[in-house]
Amino acid sequence: MKGNREGRLSYRLLLAVDIQGYSKRDTREQLLAQRQLSDALDRAARGVGLDRERWDKQVGGDGELATLPVGTDPALVAGDFALGLADALREVNRRDAARFRLRVRLSLHHGTLTAGPFGPAGDAPIVVQRLLDAAPLRRLLVDDPGRDLAYVVSDSLFEDVVQTGFCALPPEAFHAIKVTAKGATFRGHVLTGRATRGGEAPGEERSGPDGPPAADAHVLDFPALAVR
Asked: Among 6, 98, 194, 199, which one has the highest count of C-beta atoms within 10 angstroms of its own C-beta?
């Protein structure tokens, strides 16, 4: 990581994104999706005064794991950045006619990690990736074909940041989940409606017969999908 050396712990904000249905695209369509996602992330970051050039990024074909710089405001990223990314994705899908729409999963967590030769090491990168690959998050995109962004924050980030009132998204717009993977349990909070600025309340729109859950509803428990 920029400014860190191996063997030194750092407490950082991490962000992971992944493109839904990436493997179903041909090579040209995969390249288009990569460019679209990069542009959408750039736009969302610029919209809140962040510079992605300063992010330490571990990239894959269908997404990235980013460690944000020390001092990044977590409330800004958890709220306004997520809203900005949803806006950017909607704009991409309105503007670019393609066989596949750009639909993305996003997860956030903050915790300790250290630099390593193949990327950040520690619990924090594991948590953010397990939540990104969790079945409930994937299911949001499957159950709601009109959704462009499925978004989850870790349990600790929800408690430390979202519940403070400094985040642009209210706590009641999220629903608690619990996932298991590799014998471990990971807890997070999924935005149950679509991330929008104004208009419908984020927690009021949810597909499926049961409608939106109450803010204090029971925790949903799902097995996590296999992590690549």
From this structure: 194
